[in-house]
Design brief:
The chain has 2 domains: about 120 residues, Rossmann fold (3-Layer(aba) Sandwich); about 120 residues, Rossmann fold (3-Layer(aba) Sandwich). The chain is an alpha/beta fold. The strands form 2 sheets. It has a 5-stranded mixed sheet with strand order 6-5-7-9-8, sandwiched between helices. The protein has a 4-stranded parallel sheet with strand order 2-1-3-4, sandwiched between helices. About 45% of the residues lie in helices and about 15% in strands. The radius of gyration is 17 Å and the shape is globular. Strand 3, helix 4 and strand 4 form a beta-alpha-beta unit. The longest helix is centred in the first third of the chain and has 21 residues.
Length: about 250
Amino acid sequence: MKRIGIVGGVGWQSTVEYYAGLCRLSERKAKNVRDGPLTPEICIESLDLHTAFALLGRDEDPESWRRFDEYHRTALRRLQASDVEVAVIASNTAHHRFASITSGIAIPVLSIVEATAREAVRLGVSRVLVLGTAMTMQSSMYPETFLRYGIDAASPASTRTRAAVVKMIEALHEGQIADADKRMHAIAKNALGGAVPHGAAVCLACTELPLAFPSAKEEVNFEHEGVRYLNTTAAHIRALFDFATA
């Protein structure tokens, strides 16, 4: 198995899910493969959430992103220096700057957006509602990537709904998971207009959001009360594991 690197810490709860998810997949595979590795070799570069968000730039000023990009790129360089053979950035928000952050990095860095888009194609999804941080919901990364796969992706048009999603992320980050599935589902149904269009799915495009559904947080996709959800964290973990064990 290839040596794995994770740029995490933003936030730490989802970074734990990456580590645990990779170890679970490795243990399951080891049961079926004689003398296979029981746990993968993993290096984690844990970044500070407050620092990362303080360095967020403005799209109208590309230079304003320089320190944000370098903060994440430096973490990837440290992983590269640790003989990591494949890496991920355990954060949807940072993928807004994925091309710039990974520029000059010699090891493969797998995209969470690409991993989720491939899962949507596998499911036959034609339309995706993207829920995430304020930056993710205003970014073109999901719409542009999904469009290449023939899928229409958009975030809620309502400012109120977007604010509710951001508040939900903050609550999950603080460990407030009581009735989180009901609250998250209500936001999703409201954003969908109360009905679920044919071929539609809700993309949990923040690595904290799947924590609202504890029983399904390891599932790449799952259904909850008639709504199909795409779990970007689980999709990313699966893509990373498959790459590392290929």
